[in-house]
Amino acid sequence: MSRILTGAALAAWFGIVSPTHADGIAAAITPPRPNVLLPSPELPHDVDETLVTFTSAIAPFAEYQDPVTEIVARQANISNFGTACGSSLTITPNPDAMLNVRVSAPCLPYDVVRIEHENLAFTQPMPLTGELSFLLPALDEYAELKAVLSDGTVLNAAAHVPDAQNFARVALQWSGADPGELVAKAPKVLDGQVFHLGQSLDTSGAVLQVFSSRISDSATSGVVRLSMQAAVTANNCEAGHAARVHRTVPGEPTSTYDLTLKGPGCGAVGERLELKNILRDLKLAGNQGG
Amino acid sequence: MHFLWRSLWAAIWLCASAMTASANDVKLTSRDGAIQIEGTLLTYDGEFYRVETIYGPLTLDGQGVTCDGPGCPDLNAFVANIRLSGADRMADVLIPAMIQAFAMRKGLSVTREVTNDRQSTFELKDSERVQARFELSSGTTAEGYADLIAEEADIALVLREPRSAEIAMARSAASGDLLKGRRARVVALDGVVAITAPSQQLRSISLEQMAAALSGSVKRWSDIGGADIPIIRHLPKPESGLLETFEDRVLRPNAASLAEGATHHEFLEDLADAVAGDTFAIGLTTLSEIGNAIPLQVAGSCGFETNATLSALRSEDYPLTLPLMLYTPARRLPLIAREFLDFTQDPAADLVIRRAGFVDQAITKTRFDDQGDRLAHAISQAGPEVTLDDLQAMVEALRDRDRLSTTFRFTGGTRLDVQSQENIIRLARAIETGAFNDQDLLLAGFSDGDGPAEPNLTLSLKRAKTVLRLLKEAAPDADFKRLKLRTDAFGEALPMACDDTDWGRAINRRVEVWVK
């Protein structure tokens, strides 16, 4: 058995690599092999291209899977896409003090992942591929991030975001179903933006909204009005909302505090709850304003 | 959450039982059994029972008595409940920030339960249980006093001293004399300002012009020195302490009253936003809530201009300083409420106040060199009444000293205004803690320029001596041997505002503190 194999291997070796030996020409005059790989030869243009086209538009993995095959797959640590099951979390700083967050959990598609950053959290369902990627405004110069997967795995990552100290950010976390929203109103000269993160489908879910504005070097100053709005629904008319506020503003100590918003009663379903005075307005002063 | 509901129910039950119990529901017996008092329990603050009896409300130390009856509180599960009610200027930003900082200092965690924009409850918890609840209602100064008188609030948040009608109401409601004792604590300062849009060209008006423009007696900007466009007025809601203060201090002295036709805003935020976007608009608001609008400078006819700045508000050099006060009732408050009141007066709270956008009362210094404007004015006004010798003597006395932000002003004669009474206590405390040891404090009295110079000089010296006496009374523990503290007077030599108006003269009647 092994002899046949060795013979075949040798034959292959001689047949492919060294035609020179076969011709009996001395090895000394053999041109040296290139140190780098040669580029692949160009395919002739008349190759039938239909060969490389995938015809299946419907991913077969979305179909119902037999539990037995799933167990077999898990035991083999292979995802539906044939990749290894190992989960990972990577964060990389992006421009404007944003973090590029990638959560990879190929064997937990559709499961909800909980992202935690600076005592705030939000939940997000994993896509089909088990690869989640999004941008998160960093709330600290030394950003630490935690991802809790549905199987209990906790992943940690950290990154240094020096640019974060140039941003004023107010983050509002809403827990529970039917979350409300953070509303920011500011004059046009102040550039600001509200980021919405996460989806909350039930009481264990949470979403995060972050208002972010760059503290510019110019003398521009002004006030950003921050308010909270929530639709009164059958899910929250009695229980109300639980929320958490996190303020990180240059020149101010970072603060975090909890809010519970009382439900207005189920007679008010369909109305909108608007709270103007609960969140402190953000006063942004340019360098002149001090 | 479950626990929260349960405690809420317990609270509701307690309230309900306290209100409905018309018969005697507690019997307090002294330890030796000699004295028994029956009555309806009004409050229990963790230390003291307050009972409505046939003798009227009585307060009894819980350590000296035993309690029997259905109204007796659970002594181990006592949660202090402190109700604060009053001006939204304080309740919206300042008091929440103070409660947060107070809780952090005591190592307690805070959850704010929001009912709506007007009602919130702050729950202060340690690792085991709820220690205190601060119920905060945001409304007006008048509501704050009314709640205090009706015993529906423990601390009123107010922007002005009580009016005579409120004092009379307090007397008849047996909740005590609202003016007796030191009941008002100035927590922070704010300024009443008139604002315009950034696009409005006029930047400085006199107080009389401000009164005319905001009351509606002039209709066009050109009437007060601006462009020929109409004036659109935006005012706070009628019963707010802010509008009342403006009426008391600006409109009444100018014999003006508010004309119809202004837009009244429930929230000052909306007012500021409306003004910021309209070149025609003028608005009345506070310095802490100017939003994206710009405050107008206040000018005097003789050329003085004052800006509502941090230092001008602290020293009351700006004519429309608005003290934000906590008013407490004559009855005893729970321990944690008293600790909170002390915290609001602590220097540690100054930073919290500044970050919340208000002016704290910290004692700061400005150098003599920065008084150039005032000196130039003094020289230009010098004449037969204030001679060159007078000015030279004053410069000699003050030249190598710094002026403290602490300034004392008088409502008339030698009675100090609220903010100055607070300043006495602040400065006395600083002296007691040795902040001015080995230094030389000069209390410099000044007067307005009304009347001949000689009596004015005497009066200004009298004011300085009054301040010295009050300081010594307020600082019984101070060692006055370790610092120099003396008085001097310069009469009308260094005016800060024009003497042709009441408010200008009020600003000029003062005692400054100079240190070296």
Question: Could you explain the architecture of this structure?
Answer:
- Chain B: InterPro entries: OmpA-like, OmpA-like_sf, PBP_domain, Phosphate_ABC_transporter.
- Chain B: Residues 396-516 form the OmpA-like domain.
- Chain B: Pfam families: OmpA (PF00691), PBP_like_2 (PF12849).
- Chain B: It comes from Litoreibacter halocynthiae.
- Chain B: Keywords: Membrane, Signal.
- Chain A: Residues 1-22 form the signal peptide.
- The complex is a heterodimer of chains A (290) and B (516).
- Chain A has 290 residues and is mostly beta strands.
- Chain A has one domain (67-284).
- In chain A, 10% of the residues lie in helices and 37% in strands.
- Chain A is built from 3 helices and 16 strands.
- In chain A, strand 3 (112-117) and strand 4 (120-125) form a beta hairpin.
- The longest helix of chain A is centred in the first third of the chain and has 15 residues, at 2-16.
- By secondary structure, chain B is of the alpha+beta class.
- Chain B folds into 4 domains: 2-77, SH3 type barrels; 80-183 and 328-355, 3-Layer(aba) Sandwich (D-Maltodextrin-Binding Protein, domain 2); 190-314, 3-Layer(aba) Sandwich (D-Maltodextrin-Binding Protein, domain 2); 363-515, 2-Layer Sandwich (60s Ribosomal Protein L30, Chain: A), CATH 3.30.1330.
- Chain B contains 15 helices and 25 strands.
- In chain B, strands 6, 7, 8, 9, 10, 11, 13, 14, 15, 16 and 19 form an 11-stranded mixed β-sheet that branches. In chain B, strands 20, 21, 22, 23, 24 and 25 form a 6-stranded mixed β-sheet that branches. A 5-stranded antiparallel β-sheet of chain B has the order 4-3-2-1-5, with no helix packed on it.
- The longest helix of chain B has 22 residues, at 453-474.
- In chain B, 43% of the residues are buried.
- Classes of the chains: A mainly beta (290), B alpha+beta (516).
- The A-B interface holds A 185, 187, 222-223, 225, 252, 255, 257-262, 264, 275-278, 280-281, 283 and B 4, 88, 92-93, 97, 100, 109-117, 120, 138, 267, 269, 272-273, 276, 291-292, 355-357.
- Strand 14 of chain A pairs parallel with strand 7 of chain B.
